[in-house]
From TrEMBL:
CDD domains: AmyAc_bac1_AmyA
Catalyses which reaction(s): Endohydrolysis of (1->4)-alpha-D-glucosidic linkages in polysaccharides containing three or more (1->4)-alpha-linked D-glucose units
EC number per UniProt: 3.2.1.1
Keyword annotations from UniProtKB, A to Z: Carbohydrate metabolism, Glycosidase, Hydrolase
Superkingdom assignment: Bacteria
Family: Belongs to the glycosyl hydrolase 13 family.
GO function term, MF aspect, one: alpha-amylase activity
Name of the protein described by the UniProt record: Alpha-amylase
Length: 437
């Protein structure tokens, strides 16, 4: 089963379609596309896609409805699932007199003047009428205490008009998802899910319309307390999966100078990772490099590589690979080419291939140490990760492993596994993904 999700962050639709065959060939099982709901077509900044103007229109800087249809068709033709990023917590923060009317008087007039063009991009509904009015929004001001559960769901995110939980809003969001289902989407990422009330989540995402769809939410947390307040209750009260920020926090701690690799043997057993069947595992998400407040969660470049090897090599969770076009490098030059086109980089391709080869095979620890870890996947896969600055040479038992030649998917090296005890050699600050030939 191929389940690795490629996050095609802010990719134009044409680029996704033209690379569909290659995405499938590498072994990705799904693609998370940018938010498709109507946003400023003239706004090249990535965050524009996270500020919807109208649910009923599919148009953005990245493409229009026809391009979106082509994406779904091309990916499905190559056996790849398609997931849409959905923003239902808020609408666009626009400077106009009627800022709480959506899409607004001027936009409705444009719909009338360009009726043919907007009819082509229409998803559902009557574009002669407005979608939301001032009484569909909270009037509580901006969130000031980010750990306050009430403020988190009832106040606004930095000026973004925050939608109220009422029958009209719920009905429009349900209608939007039904229409997106009709286009062929296989599931949805729910943006800013921790800012949606529980009842809102249940009524919009817990309907029969979404039965069989893969749903995963982004509840961004950075420590145990935030996870306790926001993430674990969502896990208990909903049926969707979530980005595994507890595991991400564990990885940050493990790869710190005082951290221990032993924590990665079974982190979910100690509440340091989500249950395997509800987890979308990440080494980085788009919010972390692109938002000032989250950059403290970035791993060192080499540690991020080691974390990706662990995520792709372990048993459990659905790995997500973030691949951008240097969106954060304009403000942070050190980010240049760090994630640009990462999806087709040789190391990521090797990790995807290894993950797919051992998918569903049990994980078993072969050697544990504070500085390095070796574990098996079934009888033909071995993962070795060394965070220290020196070579490590653990002796492992070969019981339960296939004897014979193994190739490292990352580096291309060959080794011959044999005997009852085998001595590994793991280079400093490196990792290996061995697969029996």
């Amino acid at each position: 089963m191929h389940d690795v999700i490629l996050h095609a962050f802010d990719w134009p639709y044409r680029e996704i379609s033209s690379n569909a065959a290659k995405i499938a060939e590498i072994g990705y099982g799904g693609v998370l596309i940018p938010p498709p709901l109507y946003s400023d077509p003239n706004g090249p900044e990535w965050w524009q896609r996270y500020q919807p103007k109208d649910y009923r229109v599919l148009r953005s800087h990245l493409g229009r409805k026809t391009g979106l249809r082509n994406v779904i068709k091309a990916l499905h033709k190559n056996g790849v699932m398609v997931y849409a990023d959905i923003v239902f917590n808020h609408m666009a923060n626009e400077s106009r007199p009627d800022r709480l009317n959506f899409p607004g008087r001027a936009e409705l007039e444009r719909y009338r003047k360009e009726r043919r063009q907007f009819s082509r991009d229409r998803l559902y509904g009557n574009l002669d009428e407005g979608l939301f009015s001032p009484w569909d929004f909270h009037a509580s001001g901006n969130i000031e205490n980010w750990l306050d559960e009430y403020q988190s769901t009832e106040y606004s995110l930095s000026g973004l008009p925050d939608l109220e939980l009422n029958e009209w809003v719920i009905g429009q969001q349900q209608a939007c998802l039904r229409a997106l289902n009709g286009l062929g989407f296989d599931g949805y990422r729910v943006d800013a899910v921790k800012h949606l009330p529980d009842e809102h989540i249940r009524r919009v995402f817990g309907t029969s319309d979404l039965a069989g769809k893969y749903l995963f939410g982004e509840a961004l947390t950075a420590n145990d307390n935030e996870e306790r307040v926001f993430l674990w209750p969502l896990l208990n009260e909903t049926g969707m999966s979530f980005y595994d920020f507890p595991l991400h926090e564990t990885l940050r701690r493990v790869f710190s100078p005082s951290g221990s690799m032993r924590e990665l043997i079974d982190p979910a057993a100690y509440g340091q990772a989500l249950p395997w069947q509800r987890s979308v595992t990440v080494a980085v998400t788009h919010d972390i490099p692109n938002n000032d407040g989250f950059r403290g969660q970035l791993l060192d470049r080499q540690d991020e590589f080691l974390a990706k090897v662990y995520i792709m090599g372990r048993d459990g969770g659905v790995p997500l690979v973030y691949s951008d076009h240097n969106e954060s490098a304009g403000k942070y030059p050190e980010d240049r080419d760090r994630w640009a086109n990462a999806w087709q980089r040789s190391d990521l391709k090797a990790m995807v291939a290894f993950h797919n080869a051992v998918h569903g095979q049990p994980q078993r620890t072969l050697f544990e140490d504070d500085g390095f870890l070796v574990f098996a996947r079934g009888y033909r896969g071995i993962v070795a990760i060394n965070k220290t600055g020196i070579w490590q040479h653990p002796n492992i038992s070969t019981f339960g492993l296939r004897h014979g030649p193994y190739r490292c998917m990352l580096h291309g090296h060959l080794m011959e596994l044999g005997g009852e005890i085998f001595t590994f050699g793991i280079p400093p600050r490196q990792a290996q993904l061995w697969l029996a030939e």
